[in-house]
Amino acid sequence: MRRLLFRRLLAAPLVLLAVSTLTFFLMRAVPGGPFDVEKPLPPAIKANIEAKYRLNDPFWLQYASYIGGVLRGDLGPSYKYVNRSVTDIVRATLPVSAALGALALVVSLIMGLIFGTLAGAFSGTWVDRTSLFLATLGIALPGFLLGAVVILVFAHNLRIFPPALWEGARHMILPAVTLGIGPAAYLARLIRSGILETMHQDFIRTAKAKGLHPAKVMLFHVLGNALTPVISVLGPLTAAFVTGSFVVEYLFSIPGMGKYFVDSVANRDYPLIMGVTLVYGVILYAANIVVDILYAWADPRVGRE
After folding, report:
1. Would the N or C end of the chain have less CB density within 10 A of its end CB?
2. pTM for the full predicted model
3. What mean pLDDT value characterizes the chain?
């Protein structure tokens, strides 16, 4: 496991450098610029602004300056939010996005475990078919549509939860459920498949032959083995939480990094786009390292590879 962790940490700087470089060149390759508005600025004013942000420097010098800033922990100034650096914006919004992602992960694990276990334990019955239908529906519905539906039903019609903002526990429920339903549906199908595969193993037949109660067999023998594949998908699911948070934060007016990322794309705020992308890259890479460690702990054969 130590060698596995060492290899992952050794590759981290190269991966983050690749993410930073790719994001930088993609931003510069897109037609237009951050100060190309509907009403063109006077040439003198535009030249002064570009000189202030060093946009008139040679291309290679802009790249060297950006990478140098990243190595120093300086992500540069925001073009849209005057007198605020990207580092300040990330520092203020990262806790909000992290809280939303953690709540959505809890929601997806709980819902996926409940529906997946019911579908696997009652395979072929109406419980199984209903669970599969709900799981398929959760995967098929896009986040913006699902969010609009839950706001309409639970905020406007039933008036149970507030429709937007991030000002307390009640404000967190609808965004967390909206973000967690899609991954929960995927986990439910995965857990169901794992349960059905494990139910035909020899040690399960042995446990049943000993006269153990079916609930004990399911809880202590089947689920422990059926949940192993879930660990391997937590890394890709983190990507789903990250990309889904863009829509959810914007839809529910949550002051997280996702909302700022959407705004930065619309405003061509290059430093903010590149800074948020880099932070998300760090989060995804760290999540995959944690998943590798957990999987190596659950299956020692992985750690010995």
Report:
1. C
2. 0.81
3. 83
